[in-house]
Design goal:
It is a single chain. The chain has 194 residues and is an alpha/beta fold. Helices cover 30% and strands 24% of the residues. The protein has 7 helices and 7 strands, in the order ααβαβαβββαβαβα. A 7-stranded mixed β-sheet has the order 3-4-5-2-1-6-7, sandwiched between helices. The longest helix has 11 residues. The model has no long low-confidence stretch (mean pLDDT 96). It binds S-adenosyl-L-homocysteine (SAH). The site of S-adenosyl-L-homocysteine (SAH) has 19 residues, from strand 2. It catalyses: S-adenosyl-L-methionine + a thiopurine = S-adenosyl-L-homocysteine + a thiopurine S-methylether. This is thiopurine S-methyltransferase. One of its GO terms (biological process) is methylation. Belongs to the class I-like SAM-binding methyltransferase superfamily. TPMT family.
């Protein structure tokens, strides 16, 4: 953990990953753990507002939208978000976001998928509302280690009272790989989320 503590990836480095086709974290198939724990996320509820922080072009956004949920995502890469709509053959429209200069909101014409192109740290519940569920795959583990507490505090502020949060982490020796994905031990997950 110590080995990764000071590592920082800039927004430019993330944009570059998308530009150079180095976005190796993207999966063409839906995530098996979302499939496995979907019932926990939904908890018998329907028509939820589900948040995908640091969403990339995750195909699961389309799958959950098709099930009748409303999907909100955020990513700094406009390329990733546009590729999502293109890959899924979904028409969308684009508009500025009042309150966040330079940000864009890309919304499917059908209205049930709304992706913000900006830094997650620009969001607040005043702008995006609160969520009934969160799918965090490649988000907490992608956030710079120095920003974890800020990220988690923001996520908590975006959650409704009864919301559920599914978090995917990875286990490996942090001395052997510099990340991302960063190694976030379970004890830290517990202390971060309280
Ligand atoms: N959740 C996706 C992508 C994971 S990779 C998946 O599972 O495939 C992490 C993503 O976070 C990248 O797409 C990167 O562009 C985005 N990102 C990095 N820092 C960000 C920030 N501060 N705000 C919003 N998005 C960010």
């Amino acid at each position: 953990i110590g080995a990764q503590k000071d590592r920082v990836l800039t927004v430019e480095e993330w944009l570059q990953k998308w530009e150079t086709g180095a976005a190796a974290f993207h999966k063409e198939q839906g995530h098996p753990l979302l499939q496995k724990y979907l019932d926990v996320l939904l908890n018998g509820r329907s028509g939820l507002r589900i948040f995908f922080p640091l969403c990339g072009k995750a195909v699961d956004m389309k799958r959950l939208a098709d099930m009748g949920h409303s999907i909100i995502g955020v990513d700094v890469s406009e390329q990733a978000l546009k590729e999502f709509f293109a890959d899924q053959s979904l028409p969308y429209c684009e508009e500025p976001v009042p309150g966040i200069s330079g940000a864009k909101k890309l919304q499917s014409t059908s209205g049930n998928i709304c992706l913000y192109c900006c830094s997650i740290y620009d969001l607040s519940s005043a702008i995006v509302g609160k969520f009934d569920g969160v799918w965090d795959r490649g988000a907490l583990v992608a956030v710079n280690p120095c920003d974890r507490q800020r990220y988690v505090s923001l996520m908590i502020s975006l959650m409704e009272k009864n919301s559920s949060y599914l978090l995917v982490t990875v286990l490996y020796d942090p001395n052997k790989h510099k990340g991302p994905p960063f190694y976030v031990p379970e004890s830290e997950v517990k202390s971060l989320f309280g």
